[in-house]
Amino acid sequence: MTDTTARPTATKFILWIVLALSLLGLDQITKFYFENNFTLGESFPVFTGFNLVLAHNTGAAFSFLADAGGWQRWGFTGLALAVIIAMLVLLARNNHRPMMALALTLITAGAMGNMIDRTMYGYVVDFLDFYWQNWHWPAFNIADIAICGGAFFLILDELISSRHSK
């Protein structure tokens, strides 16, 4: 008898896609809320060190290339599309590995969320603002959290896999 849990299946792939679409939905709903209930730059203090704020990012992480003249909108959209395709291919091949599949799912969902923003608006909608005294971390969103979480789990999966292979 073969162990079917140790190989990728279409059912597992679909379940991971459902999770990705759920995260994408949460990302888009929160961005829609802030776009429709805040004015650009408006800040709402939640507690010391954390505000909700509407910010638009025309660049990449930390507003990298935000003032690059406009090409970055389609450049980052194309890059996101390539990442999404690569993540889906890897997910189809690795959906039997829970931590790897979670990492790929999170990165896919986050890339999709920010790609939708760039395509629709020409910028990414950010709304989470953490700060210490007068220093503010760049505002971010649910998609950014998913991408960072995915990167974390990807690294963790690799560290665990390399440790077990020794």
Task: Note the gap between the termini.
Answer: 28 Å
Q: List unreliable stretches of 5+ residues.
A: none
| Biggest β-sheet strands, sense, barrel | 4 strands, antiparallel
SSE pattern, N- to C-terminal: HEEHHEEH
Description:
There is one protein chain. The longest helix has 28 residues, at 10-37. The protein has a four-stranded antiparallel β-sheet with strand order 1-2-3-4. It is built from four helices and four strands, in the order αββααββα. Helix 1 packs parallel to helix 3, helix 2 runs antiparallel to helix 3 (98-121) and helix 3 runs antiparallel to helix 4 (142-164). The model has no long low-confidence stretch (mean pLDDT 90). A hairpin with a 2-residue loop joins strand 1 (43-47) and strand 2 (50-57). The chain has helices at residues 10-37, 71-94, 98-121, 142-164, and strands spanning 43-47, 50-57, 124-132, 135-136. The radius of gyration is 18 Å and the shape is globular. By secondary structure, the chain is an alpha+beta fold. It starts with 9 loop residues before the first helix and ends with a helix.
Offer a quick outline of the entry:
The longest helix has 28 residues, at 10-37. It contains four helices and four strands.
Descriptive tags:
166 residues; alpha+beta; four-stranded antiparallel β-sheet; 4 helices; 4 strands
Task: Provide the fold topology.
Elements: H1 10-37, E1 43-47, E2 50-57, H2 71-94, H3 98-121, E3 124-132, E4 135-136, H4 142-164
Antiparallel strand pairs: 1-2, 2-3, 3-4
